[in-house]
């Protein structure tokens, strides 16, 4: 199976601080890769580096075999990377539908087609009854779902989900897990940063654990959560 | 969008009838229409793309000077002069935007002040071309099909055509991909990038269209004034007035700039004739009240409320 995404020896520095240290990862088509680790481990930074929102100090990023390392973020989006942001970024003066339309226009320049795609994405995340509401009036849980709808409307090949499950109640969590499982059935590959272990265990085919910018473990979800090094990283040693 | 086009046609008919009404003041009408056109053009950049310009007098002046110099020095008909001005304005906006859109925060706005200043200094000092500080006088204009450009009625219809052209273009843009991209970049640049949008590219498009459209109105203004002085036309006050018209009418709306210019020009005219010296004070208070009570502008507040009400009904 072809590699959808391959990142080689990525290093990100903020001044003197090494936020991500020489990390490699790869993702096969239709699979889900989980990124976990304690707060400040560099998960979101790695995420931003791969999607082009943070410059990297060293390394190489291949997207379906093509080197995208020097491409700006919006070009990577056009070639099939869709992402959500950890803190929601709605276009506040736009309605829910218009927010998603902006993304749908990427592959569908005609408004009618774009609207269809946008409505489809909104239906997937369960926001159809909110289409004409201003996005600034949504509550946090719905803003999360709006983020996801925006990413879905891009019709991405690889979807990057940054803590999309945070703050969801158990039934909503269950729904979201099922929805994401459904996406991979449709051929989308996913990289997810997540704190909610239940989601990682149920969804991720492969898990990478980061701590202080370093990769400390990788493998299947059950393998890594039993790894003593991982337990140390989360709970501390002594 | 259809509703907007219908409203546009209805208003255009009203505009065509206006000069035949007994109480019609053509000069006020021309001023309202020119300001509507400039403000609507400014709005594409300042309201839709969120890039505040305080230098749009440059493009007004560019159009006016091209027409005046064309008529007085180069024997160039005003329509060719306006076409040249549009080209020049577009290229200028492209170059200026490339240079300054990288700046964050208020720096783009500040840099635009410099454009008009540079033009003013050029117009004053390059006397061989521009007539220097004393300005240029348009003494003769061609008369195609017997059309007299010096008649107020002709000027009125030119201004009417211009104002409706800019509003028509805004309606067209608002319903298309580019219209949504403009607003996306304004509201959140990073999110727009994540939607595959190149923010610089979108802002440049807005700036170029805005500058080109403003220069057309500048050309008509030149004909209307028939005497152009650099310190009056390349004036920061004119740039601010254009921006203020939109802010009061409603940034990022279709009809806000037209409503704003109607309100500001007409009330300015009334205050000037009835309150004499106190007119600027009252004008200032009016602006302050509108901004305090309706921060989104008149049309902006209205459409914001409509969206909320529409949703409340559904829920």
Question: Quick summary of this structure?
Answer:
The complex is a heterodimer of chains A (238) and B (315). Chain A is of the alpha/beta class and 238 residues long.
Which tags fit this structure?
heterodimer, A: about 240 residues, alpha/beta, Rossmann fold, 2 domains, six-stranded mixed β-sheet, four-stranded antiparallel β-sheet, 10 strands, about 25% strand, B: about 325 residues, mainly alpha, two-stranded antiparallel ribbon
Q: Would you give an account of this structure?
A:
- The complex is a heterodimer of chains A (238) and B (315).
- Chain A folds into two domains: 1-80 and 159-168 and 191-238, Rossmann fold (3-Layer(aba) Sandwich); 81-155, no CATH class.
- Chain A is an alpha/beta fold and 238 residues long.
- Chain A has a six-stranded mixed β-sheet with strand order 6-7-8-3-9-10, sandwiched between helices. Chain A has a four-stranded antiparallel β-sheet with strand order 2-1-4-5, with helices on one face.
- In chain A, strand 1 and strand 2 form a beta hairpin.
- Helix content of chain A is 37%, strand content 26%.
- Chain B is mainly α.
- Helix content of chain B is 76%, strand content 1%.
- Chain B has helices spanning 2-17, 26-48, 57-72, 78-100, 107-125, 127-130, 152-174, 177-187, 189-194, 199-225, 230-233, 236-249, 256-275, 279-293, 298-314; strands at 136-137, 227-228.
- The radius of gyration of chain B is 20 Å and the shape is globular.
- The model of chain B has no long low-confidence stretch (mean pLDDT 91).
